[in-house]
């Protein structure tokens, strides 16, 4: 009996796993499982079926964003089942102001957090506080420290936890992490599977962010609703690991439960040697299991889509949700000519965005530029942005232009390479690591009514602040736009 | 001025829903993310006015001007929708973040216990379940028809009945809907999450033990 068959049988009964004698499970090695990568990983984590397509699943890692919930639970005498699998990385509420280390009033909750951090460490909770060299945005730190590994089920509170899927694992965010802490398990409805084959050739100056915006523009902000999405095809295969995170990060922006990319040599090379990566002792054994994870050639998905990236322009959003992405040479659409079902939302988007139907998006003046967030704030992103702004100046109409590294480690690396000097010389503010203006009670907001071009992931009404207009784009498009003071074509800076 | 929350928001988990009768408010936009019903408090600019309660923050950016006065074009600022406790929504409502404020804030402000829409964001659905709020999914044409009925019948209440799996508009044929049987059972019985998970505690422990032998590298030790 193959493991997959075993799991399928056992979930129906619910308790079969518990009644098997020790050692029986070991015979059903994971590499024997067949199907899609999602199926293999899901099946390997099933504890019990709860009826229909709802399952109780084992969680391998849980990342928490705020110590408050945990401290409250401890105060109430709740038993935390597996403290070692929990990592506390408070990112949303932390100011990225350079003075944050001395002024604990910046952001929110830091005073309290620092008071409790030591106690949490004593209790056995892994904690990366703002003073920790490993601190940063959860979805940058998880992979960067080797916590996120192929084949895992990883849960966290934040919805962009789907980012970790680029390591070849299942991950999602939800506000039920207290249940994960209490039980080491989580309940979810099993989604359908979708493969998005990204084909063609990506033109010069285009990045992973352009790819995923194009996918969402085509499939819709609801395009992945009800699905777990595997991003595949030659364009994805050719992306460096850093950029694969950008793709999976926006899986939730098409309403998918999660996004994944199959692990390959790019992934393994990227992971090897990181703090929590398997040690030498286990590496070969881990590799053998990981190499069996990718979707089998004969596996079937509930849905397959193929999207050609040949000849696409850099993407930028004009409206109020991520599917409102258009090519840099396109015009803002006219709601009255939009499909009837989209008209009402397009009207709302036009009214909110302050743009005129038919106007070219290229050249739209901006007030702020933001480079950071869990989408593209890794070292390769910062290098690419520095390349664009080197020897140039941020336009005088741009009131703030920020670069916010995704983690302390990324910041150190960037400074070692002198990227901070390039950004500062160009007139950018070089900030501390954190979520910053993408979202969070951290004090970093776009000023009311302003237009901000951002490399982050959400452009919804009020996301970055009251009446703020967000144009999502790639990191390098943001860099080029900051230089011109209006939405710009990065291909003029290659 | 700070407003008192008119409706109680329960603790997360184990909340019941059998049926709810009330006025409905149509908000027929697509892909409305949690950022809209549950904006970050500081970014609304209203906390300076003392408006920082759950009820105040519901839809704050599209509901209030910066000075705290009401925006007339927002549906809950219009009669009779001020008293509405059901929302009629479009495609993929509540997409985006995992913030349960998207459920609890409208619950605190107007007692919104039921949503009827074409589809919902997956995390929103999970949060709704936890707070005893239902998300009724129906084909777009049906949702449009319900929204039109609401506009044509101001002040007339409708009922969402989870026991009988119907939406009832007075004078109309009951509109049947489907619901995840496990979700329905939890809502009807008030079954708590931990109670639901408890029978599987031993299975989970055994699985973890077995798995630790197969994937020892996954299990981080403090001395790692």
Protein architecture, described:
The complex is a heterodimer of chains A (494) and B (224). Chain A has helices at residues 3-13, 16-19, 37-45, 67-75, 110-122, 138-144, 177-183, 208-219, 234-237, 241-249, 265-271, 280-290, 340-353, 379-389, 408-416, 419-425, 475-484, and strands at residues 46-49, 54-58, 61-64, 86-88, 126-127, 153-156, 170-173, 185-189, 192-199, 227-232, 258-260, 303-308, 315-317, 325-327, 368-371, 400-403, 429-430, 451-454, 469-472. Chain A is of the alpha/beta class and 494 residues long. The longest helix of chain A is centred in the C-terminal third of the chain and has 14 residues, at 340-353. Chain A is globular. With 224 residues, chain B is an alpha/beta fold. Helix content of chain B is 32%, strand content 14%. Chain B has nine helices and seven strands. Chain B has helices at 41-44, 54-57, 60-63, 101-110, 122-130, 140-152, 181-189, 193-197, 201-214, and strands at 19-27, 84-89, 114-117, 134-137, 158-161, 166-168, 175-176. Chain B is globular. At the A-B interface, β2, α7, β8, α12 and α13 of A face α1, α3, α5, α7 and α8 of B.
Instruction: State Rg of chain B.
Output: 20 Å
Mean pLDDT of chain A: 91
Largest sheet strand order of chain B: 4-3-2-1-5-6-7
CATH superfamily of chain B: Aconitase, domain 4
Number of strands of chain A: 19
Oligomer: heterodimer
Structural class of chain B: alpha/beta
CATH top-level class of the largest domain in chain A: Alpha Beta
| Helicity range of chain B | 25-40%
* Backbone shape of chain B: globular
How many structural domains in the coordinates of chain A?
3
Q: Any guess at the CATH architecture of chain B?
A: Alpha-Beta Barrel
The CATH homologous superfamily of the largest domain in chain A is termed: Aconitase, domain 3
- Specify the CATH architecture of the largest domain in chain A: 2-Layer Sandwich
- Assign a percent range to the helix content of chain A: 25-40%
For the report, how would you describe the main beta sheet of chain B?
7 strands, mixed
Discrete helix count of chain B:
9
Output mean pLDDT of chain B.
Answer: 95
Largest interface: A-B, 84 and 67 residues
- Termini Cα gap of chain A: 56 Å
């Amino acid at each position: 009996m193959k493991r997959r068959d075993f799991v399928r049988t056992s979930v129906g009964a619910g308790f079969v796993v518990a009644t098997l004698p020790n050692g029986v499970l070991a015979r059903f090695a994971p590499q024997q499982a067949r199907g899609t990568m999602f199926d293999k990983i899901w099946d390997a984590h099933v504890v019990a079926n709860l009826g229909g397509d709802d399952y109780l699943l084992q969680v391998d890692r849980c990342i928490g964003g705020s110590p408050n919930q945990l401290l409250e639970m401890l105060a109430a005498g709740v038993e935390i089942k597996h403290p070692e699998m929990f990592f506390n990385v408070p990112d949303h509420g932390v100011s990225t102001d350079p003075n944050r280390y001395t002024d604990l009033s910046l952001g929110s909750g830091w005073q309290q957090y620092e008071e409790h951090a030591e106690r949490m460490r004593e209790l056995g909770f892994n904690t990366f506080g703002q003073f920790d060299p490993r601190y940063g945005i959860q979805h940058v730190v998880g992979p960067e420290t080797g916590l996120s590994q192929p084949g895992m089920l990883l849960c966290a509170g934040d919805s962009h936890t789907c980012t970790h899927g680029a390591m070849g694992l299942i991950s999602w965010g939800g506000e039920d992490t207290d249940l994960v802490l209490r039980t080491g398990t989580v309940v979810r409805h099993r989604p359908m599977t979708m493969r998005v084959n990204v084909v063609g050739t990506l033109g010069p100056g285009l990045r992973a962010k352009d790819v995923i915006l194009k996918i969402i523009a085509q499939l819709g902000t609801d395009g992945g609703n009800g699905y777990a999405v595997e991003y595949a095809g030659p364009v994805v295969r050719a992306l460096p690991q850093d950029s694969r995170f950008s793709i999976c990060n926006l899986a939730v922006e098409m309403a998918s439960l999660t996004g994944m990319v199959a692990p390959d040599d790019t992934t393994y090379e990227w992971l090897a040697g990181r703090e929590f990566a398997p040690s030498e002792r286990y590496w070969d054994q881990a590799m053998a299991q990981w190499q069996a994870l990718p979707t089998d050639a004969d596996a079937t998905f509930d849905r397959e889509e193929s999207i050609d990236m040949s000849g696409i322009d850099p993407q930028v959003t004009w409206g109020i949700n991520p599917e409102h992405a258009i090519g840099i040479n396109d015009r803002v659409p006219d709601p009255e000519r939009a499909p009837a079902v989209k008209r009402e939302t397009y009207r709302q988007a036009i009214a909110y965005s302050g743009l005129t139907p038919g106007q070219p998006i290229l050249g739209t003046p901006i007030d702020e530029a933001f480079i950071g967030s869990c989408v593209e704030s890794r070292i390769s992103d910062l290098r690419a942005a520095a390349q664009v702004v080197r020897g140039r100046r941020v336009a005088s109409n741009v009131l703030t232009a920020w670069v916010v590294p995704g983690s302390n480690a990324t910041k150190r690396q960037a400074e070692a390479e002198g990227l901070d000097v390039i950004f500062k010389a160009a007139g950018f503010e070089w900030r501390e690591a954190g979520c910053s203006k993408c979202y969070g009670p951290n004090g970093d907001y776009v000023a009311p009514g302003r237009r901000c071009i951002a490399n982050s992931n959400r452009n919804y009404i009020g996301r970055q602040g009251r009446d703020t207009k967000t144009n999502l784009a790639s990191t390098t498009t943001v860099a080029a736009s900051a230089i011109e003071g209006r939405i710009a074509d990065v291909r003029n800076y290659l | 001025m700070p407003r008192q929350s008119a409706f109680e928001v329960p603790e997360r988990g184990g909340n019941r829903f059998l049926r709810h009768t009330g006025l409905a408010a149509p908000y027929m936009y697509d892909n409305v993310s949690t950022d809209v019903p549950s904006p970050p408090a500081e970014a609304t600019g209203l906390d300076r006015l003392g408006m920082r309660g759950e009820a105040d923050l519901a839809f704050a950016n599209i509901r209030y001007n910066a000075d705290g006065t009401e925006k007339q074009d927002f549906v809950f600022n219009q009669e009779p929708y001020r008293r509405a406790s059901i929302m009629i929504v479009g495609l993929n409502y509540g997409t985006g973040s995992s913030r349960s404020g998207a459920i609890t804030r409208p619950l605190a402000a107007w007692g919104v216990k039921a949503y009827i829409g074409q589809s919902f964001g997956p995390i929103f659905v999970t949060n709704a379940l936890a707070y005893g709020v239902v998300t009724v999914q129906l084909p777009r044409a049906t949702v449009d028809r319900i929204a039109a009925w609401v506009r044509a019948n101001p002040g007339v209440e409708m009922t969402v009945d989870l026991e009988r799996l119907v939406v009832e508009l007075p004078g109309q044929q009951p509109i049947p809907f489907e619901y995840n049987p496990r979700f329905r059972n939890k809502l009807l019985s008030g079954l708590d999450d931990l109670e639901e998970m408890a029978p599987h505690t031993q299975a989970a422990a055994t699985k973890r033990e077995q798995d630790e032998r197969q994937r020892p590298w996954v299990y981080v030790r403090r001395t790692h």
